[in-house]
Specification:
Structural class: alpha+beta
Helix content: 25-40%
Largest sheet: 8 strands, mixed
Number of helices: 2
Distance between the termini: 33 Å
Radius of gyration: 16 Å
Length: 134
Amino acid sequence: MADTFQLEIVTPEKMVVRAAAEEMQIPGKDGYLGILPGHAPLITELAVGEVTYRTGAETHSLAVAWGFAEVLPEKVTILAETCERPTEIDTARAQEAKRRAEELLKSASPETDYTRAIGAAQRAETRLQVAEKK
């Protein structure tokens, strides 16, 4: 069995990562999944969360939001709606988005889309956590 697998992370705008990875964690719809070389094939929906992967001694973190992951024994492909490296995250913007989402969640307005507000709060919190890893 190989010691690595090919990792590709793609958004509609660009190829974000193409690397040989030794392990990774991805935010699946029902919780985080740990992936090692030779993993059983699967397809999962992605949630909002942090993708981490290790290449040699380096661990990399990315903030992702929504999409799909295909896991094969020798390759993992992630098609994400959004994906950001720590250096690409505007922390002031993320803090403002988190504040707005929290205000919406506190409101008692019947027009509030709580599912969307929860997603916005989770995305902002993930972006802030990943940004700390600069």
